[in-house]
Amino acid sequence: MKLAVFSHCAIDTITIDNYNYEQIGGPACYCGITARQFKFDVDLFTKFGSDFPKQYLTEYKINFENSESKKNTTKFAISINGSDRTLKLENECDLLDYSSVDADGHLVSPIYHEISDDVFRKIKSDSNFLFVDPQGFLRQKDSQNNIALKKTNLDLSNVNAIKVNPDEAQQIVTGSNDEMMLALQKKGVEYVLLTDKADVSLLVKNKVYSITLPNKQIHDTTGVGDIFCSAFCCTLLKEKDFLWALCFAGGAAQAALESRNVGLQKIPRKGTIQTNACYFYNLVKFRDL
């Protein structure tokens, strides 16, 4: 099976407890490498500069044609305090190119405006199954390049699944968490995932399915949402079972957090994800909405 991933690669300077770690990342890396753990082929649509160590993608047999740019790679300074983090944009690479690709699923997860409206429309028209993490569509920078979210009229037609946190959801729709999930569903999204720190909810038709990640000390949260998205997408495409997809996504996120590793080193192995997924499967709660 094949997953097409649309997102910038990034070089992140991550600050935790006054220690700085320079790491390569971005959903391009986190989603792509996670998908390879699920034995998916990965076609990556991205842009990066000569400062990016592309051999890391080659090592995982990720395809990335026409990705090299004359500009340097998109770069963020990320400051982490528990489950909260602040971002500052330090460099911005070129917009993504688009070419049609025959894939089982498309995963769109921009980090900062690299996917134009025209490219997004083309992806939606070509996709059999489209998962969207809208974070990069919603971000804006101030005069000091600090990142904040802004209200955005995002066209979600032909989007099958979306993952948002409450702050992101409020930029697209309004209301309580339940009201926002319903509003996103009314825009045509079949699977609505809302992650609120340790609490994860999935709205399908008129039911909300939920799991809670165990409360443990949190270290580096960078990329955990991307690992979650890729695990959900791959499991749903392969197993055709949204409950297993929810549990594998939660299991992947939990394994990444428990690793206590920084950057891409936190991406878990499939066996660890599966063990956690079986644990969560017996704890799923559900209610009508």
TrEMBL record:
Keywords: Kinase, Transferase. InterPro entries: PfkB_Carbo_kinase, PfkB_dom, Ribokinase-like. Residues 144-263 form the Carbohydrate kinase PfkB domain. One of its GO terms (molecular function) is kinase activity. Pfam families: PfkB. Belongs to the carbohydrate kinase PfkB family. This is Ribokinase. It comes from Marine Group I thaumarchaeote.
